[in-house]
Amino acid sequence: MNLYLRLLVAIVGAWRAPALHHGETSECIYRVWPHDIDLFGHMNNGRYLQIMDVARVDWMLRTGVIGAMRRNRWGAVLGGGVVRFRRSLKPMQRYRVRTRLVCWDERWFYHEHTFLSLSGDCIAVGITRAALRGGADWVTSDRVVGIVHEGAVSPPVPAYLAELLSAEEAMFRAGERIPRKLEEIGMEVCR
To answer: Among 44, 127, 142, 153, fewest CB within 10 Å belongs to which?
Structure first.
C-alpha cells in the first residue's frame, strides 16, 4: 500500500476513533505489503520510520495536536529518530504499532513507537523527537501544551532517553568537525 494511502487510512481511522488524552497510547494495525519488503525478504528498515510517521499522525489527530496545528498554521518537524530491531516482519504479516508521548522539553516532544506482532511479540522499538514551527519560528512546547492540555507537566525524562540524547548530541558535535567543503581539507574541487 502506498504510503499516502496508508496515511489517508490513518486519518480516516483517527477521525472515527475516540479522542485520546496526551498521556494515552494510540494503537494502529498495519500489514507488511510487497513494496515494504527488501532484498532479504522482510520489511525494509527504512519503512519502520515511515510507519512511525503514520502512527504519530494517528496519535496527533486523536490528542488534538493536529487541530491546534491547523488553527495556528504550524507545521511539524521531525528532529531525529532511532529504531532498535528485535525480530523481522515478514511479507503480508499484520502487526500493531503503539505510540505514546514519553516526555517533552522546551522544544521537542519525544514519542515511543513499539512494533508488536498480533500475538504480542516485540518486533522493534523506536524513539522520535518532533517539534512544531510557525513560519520561521519554533513553537515552544509550553505553548502547544497550553492549547492541547492546559496545565499538563512533562513526565521526567527516563534514564534511557537521557542517555540516548547525550549520545545523539555527541554524534552531532562530531559531525560538526567534518569539513563542509573539500577546500577546507586541502582537496581540489572538480571544475
So the answer is: 153
